[in-house]
């Protein structure tokens, strides 16, 4: 089928074997609740909302522990940050309810939350200072570069294992590669691969902070590191080629013009026995088996309560991803008229943090379709009731596959 299958590619699997050589059986692996507990301990986060201001004040004193330059920090290896975490859906049925959807499979939005937490812990493991229980760094998610799935269904009654490590390091940013596997007939088989980019900031989350350099040790690790550097350069190129900064290419202009011509309403008008075709630019018609893009939207609103805060008392990035994914799924479900399955997640940019108490406005939009595939863009913004201003916080891109072929989505305006 056209469904895009992923495999645990050769390099990561070779690396995973190397990194796991010193790990023990799954019975002693930490679970996701332990991941979040460790994060709170590393940062010194308050578990009580009333104490959060004091907890943040106490973090200010950690400024003195920051490195003045990257060269002052000891280099680390990929294996130093390698972690394995279990999600015991099979062996601990009592946690299943939180992860269950109506189709009796795992809620993918919950998996996004877990990947986000694990990615941050992996980065803290890479940057940890011996003899310092608390980290002076505020490590936050900057970008979800890509998540590719190779299973349509994630089963709610089989254990899941997450593995991951830092795969590339800049001066203040880190790329993390994570894999998710699920237990079937005694073996863990791959479900997804994810690449996140995290940034390190000072204790008050105001300015960038240096992180430990990464030293690849084997040819496989060299290759993975090079790929991380290449990913960074692609992101820079992509940001400079934004339509808001640069005109479309000749090829892109032709595509836009073809779409426009296909939607013009051509009428036949007779004059003195002959026929003359007149076309009005204002008069547009929908091609057969198509939907106007402006009619393929869904909107949502979320009040950001303290329960959804992260260790820095902003709204947890994983929560934002879950809410955006669920709106994206609903948008694809309504558009295609059948159950959609997530295929990949691309380019989730975290442009600004979301404060507790914000009104979060989410807008889902089908922006491209092809055969059974539906591409959904979810735009999230916060509304400030005092200033009455809207500010973009995130843009999400999700690719779904529908059970049936879907109508073609057609744009009406240049935007």
Automatic annotation (TrEMBL):
Main localization of the protein described in the UniProt heading: mitochondrion
BP terms from Gene Ontology: acyl-CoA metabolic process
SUPFAM superfamilies from the UniProt entry: Thioesterase/thiol ester dehydrase-isomerase
InterPro entries xrefs: HOTDOG_ACOT, HotDog_dom_sf, Thioestr_dom
Assigned GO CC terms: mitochondrion
Every HotDog ACOT-type domain range: 81-204, 294-406
Keywords of the record: Hydrolase, Mitochondrion, Repeat, Serine esterase, Transit peptide
Keyword Acyltransferase appears in the UniProt entry: no
Subcellular location: Mitochondrion
Family: Belongs to the acyl coenzyme A hydrolase family.
Name by which UniProt lists this protein: ACOT9 thioesterase
Organism: Pelecanoides urinatrix (Common diving petrel)
């Amino acid at each position: 089928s056209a469904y895009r299958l992923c495999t645990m590619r050769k390099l990561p699997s070779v690396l995973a074997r190397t990194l796991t050589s010193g790990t023990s059986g799954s019975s002693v692996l930490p679970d996701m609740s332990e991941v979040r507990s460790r994060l709170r301990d590393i940062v010194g986060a308050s578990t009580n909302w009333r104490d959060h201001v004091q907890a943040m004040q106490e973090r200010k004193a950690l400024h003195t522990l920051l490195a003045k330059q990257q060269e002052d920090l000891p280099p680390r290896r990929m294996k130093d940050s390698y972690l394995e975490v279990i999600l015991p859906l099979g062996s601990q049925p009592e946690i299943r309810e939180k992860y269950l959807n109506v189709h009796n499979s795992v809620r993918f939005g919950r998996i996004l939350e877990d990947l986000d937490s694990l990615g941050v812990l992996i980065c803290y493991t890479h940057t940890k200072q011996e003899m310092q229980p608390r980290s002076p760094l505020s490590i936050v998610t900057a970008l979800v570069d890509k998540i590719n799935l190779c299973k349509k269904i994630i089963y709610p009654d089989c254990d899941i294992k997450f593995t991951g490590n830092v795969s590339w390091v800049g001066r203040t940013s880190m790329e993390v590669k994570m894999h998710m596997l699920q237990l079937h007939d005694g073996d863990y088989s791959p479900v997804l691969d994810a690449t996140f980019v995290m940034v390190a900031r000072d204790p008050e989350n105001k300015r960038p902070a240096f992180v430990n350099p990464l030293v690849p040790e084997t040819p496989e690790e060299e290759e993975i590191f090079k790929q991380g550097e290449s990913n960074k350069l692609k992101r820079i190129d992509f940001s400079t080629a934004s339509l808001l900064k640069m005109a479309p290419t000749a090829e892109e202009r032709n595509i836009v013009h073809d779409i426009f011509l296909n939607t013009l309403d051509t009428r036949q008008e007779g004059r003195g026995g002959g026929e003359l075709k007149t076309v009005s630019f204002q008069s547009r018609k929908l091609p057969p088996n198509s939907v106007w893009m402006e009619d393929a939207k869904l909107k949502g609103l979320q009040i950001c309560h303290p329960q959804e805060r992260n260790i820095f008392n902003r709204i947890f990035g994983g929560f934002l991803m879950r809410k955006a994914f669920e709106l994206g799924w609903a948008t694809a479900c309504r558009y295609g008229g059948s159950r959609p399955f997530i295929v990949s997640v691309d380019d989730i940019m975290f442009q600004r943090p979301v404060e507790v108490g914000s009104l979060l406005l989410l807008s889902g939009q089908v922006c491209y379709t092809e055969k059974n595939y539906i591409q959904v863009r979810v735009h999230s913004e916060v509304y400030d009731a005092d200033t009455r201003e809207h500010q973009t916080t995130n843009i999400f891109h999700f690719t779904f596959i529908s059970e049936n072929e879907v109508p073609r989505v057609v744009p009406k305006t240049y935007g």
